[in-house]
Amino acid sequence: MTDKQALLQAVDAHQDQLLVLLDRLISFETMSPPARNTVAIQRFLDDKLTKIGFKTKREAFYDGDELLSAEKAGTDAANYHSLLLNGHVDVATVDRQSWHTDPFKLVHEGDLLYGRGVSDMKGGISSFVYIFSLLKQLGIDLPGDLRFQSVVGEEAGEAGTKTLLKNGETADFAVVGDTSNLNFQGQGGVVTGWITLKSPHIYHDGNRAAMITTGGGLKAANMIEKMMVVIQALEKLEQYWGITKRYPGFAPGIDTINPAYIEGGLHPAYIPSVTKLWITVHFYPNENVDDITHEIEDQVLAAAKVDPWLRDNLPTFTWGGDSLLVDKGEVFPSLELDPDHPGMQALESNFAEVAGKQPTLGMSPSVSDSGWFGYYHIPAVDFGPGTMKQAHSDNESLSFQQLLTYTKIMAAFIYDWCHSKGEKS
Prior knowledge:
The chain is an alpha+beta fold. Helices cover 34% and strands 21% of the residues. The strands form five sheets. Strands 1-2-6-3-7-17 form a six-stranded mixed sheet, with helices on both faces. Strands 9, 11, 13, 14 and 15 form a five-stranded antiparallel sheet that branches. A three-stranded antiparallel sheet has the order 4-5-18. α1 packs across α4, α4 packs across α11 and α7 crosses α8 (289-305).
């Protein structure tokens, strides 16, 4: 029996270990919001990974949150492919009264596993760490480097993965084990932004008649009313995008500009002198944040320049941020899949070997941290167990058979990819 066959057999033979690990991960109440509650789970994973031969590093993220990186150095890393596996340990907020089980205890009923995070995405993380443990138990050494990132912040638009990749962590190929129903997925991108209108002067509301009446003589404006110019410009651009843009795997009109939140005014006795509009922009995988935001700014500024008041008081723009909770802004870059990349082809081959069919390549209807790998030019795919319908849902569940199938696919892929010669060899 080959080492690879032994590994795949071990996935089935020791599946109770997988369930014990998943139950332990779910027991950590890492809801976001409120966030700032992941130190304990990261230390648990750190201890487990250290015991099976990984070199680990924890990095403070926010007060109460940590990022964890781990690496098992290959026996011939210079000549064989490296692999990076990524997942987030934060989970969606829970309304306990809506659950029929304890959301922070794994419950196994028939084929279904219940618990907060089984689909999004502690199921994927447990699969990775379980495979690492089996490699250790079977004494299997990989020629290529095997790396793992346990990140924080995905649920709140916080840049945990971005932070690690910006620090230089990389690999020849990466798999983000987020919710994909065992499909190979890329994604469109998302960026939030603030558009601000500000008057150079503040006026009592008793001046309104002089502002709006013929002959009033006061050159002033209500910023809430002037924001209508901005919103109408955004609507026209959104409609134009829907007519002119397409991308395989997406229905027409996925490029959207949502006016999500507006704030303005001081008091009923004042003319609003500052108004801010918070927007959420979705864009296709072949587009990037800079181009999209420049296009929006051009559209809004063009509309403002034909308004007799706004042309002298142009709107300003603030884009993105590293946290919805702290910065009130987020960025999820897009990810295009490269079906011809050797990593994708190897994963496809292992999928067919284990599942007995070809995988489905498509695009996620949501976003995950996978886009950051594309942003930093690391070939990657989002591939994980669980369905989007279950992510964030009450009574979140996951098919145990799907989790086992995923684990076998990933075990086979890890073995084959880290045993394949790199381009420099």
